[in-house]
Task: inverse folding
DNA sequence: GTAAAGTCTGACATCAGTGTCAGGTTCAAG
DNA sequence: CTTGAACCTGACACTGATGTCAGACTTTAC
């Protein structure tokens, strides 16, 4: 598929898809005329990239991480270096803290919403 | 306490504390000479603000939210307007999605870490 | 009263992903 | 072949919290 369809199907802008390619997160074949042609699996890949971005990982780290993923398609997976493992462990801990913070914030919001939504006392 | 101590105790930079004040998130008394003087409760307030920032809320929304919080000190709480409730509900949903994304990303990282850490097969 | 540490305001820089625009090329349908 | 939609590259702008610096003032300790 071409970039427009991939953008539509993932909800990610064409601009971002091109950016992902520059950052080495996403590959594409090119037509004779130079237009990007994506494989079907690009859809899942893009969604994953977005999730990792949402988790606060920067593109550089995502680029290192992706080749080390256990790939259902059984691609030629690299094994993460010890340095990368250290970094990823730090990221994982950061994510755990972030989930904790989010849970707290969610409770705060929930409390305000509940309080405001309750019947007003006579 | 003055700004330096508050920064130290919360782990938030003085720069950010001043920014919070400009954004209407944090109030301070001033000494005769114009220096900020914070009450003890500012510590918890700052930590809460940080958590809300971490949850992706923008300062404007935090500024609206804070006066509507159920305050253990029983301050003069505002009741959230219906509009604000709508917005906060949207934020809560966003946070729920974010927690879902984070959980996915955490699993991805965990998988890579585990795979890389496992004993190498002979 | 003086020195040193702390604080003030205001301005400019940074980051990284994304939006947007311009000017040109490619593709697919008629 | 033509036309319009889709795509290309490159460049610049934006966001919003935070870093950093300059120059001046305040506070505290001696």
Result:
């Amino acid at each position: 598929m071409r970039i427009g369809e991939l953008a539509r199907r993932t909800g990610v802008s064409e601009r971002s898809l091109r950016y992902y390619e520059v950052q080495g997160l996403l590959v594409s074949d090119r037509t004779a005329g130079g237009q990007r042609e994506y494989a079907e699996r690009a859809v899942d890949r893009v969604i994953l990239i977005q999730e990792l971005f949402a988790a606060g990982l920067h593109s550089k780290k995502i680029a290192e991480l992706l080749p080390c993923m256990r790939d259902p398609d059984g691609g030629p997976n690299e094994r993460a270096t010890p340095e990368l493992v250290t970094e990823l462990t730090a990221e994982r801990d950061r994510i755990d803290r972030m989930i904790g913070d989010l849970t707290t914030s969610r409770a705060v919001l929930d409390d305000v919403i509940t309080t405001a939504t309750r019947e007003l006392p006579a």
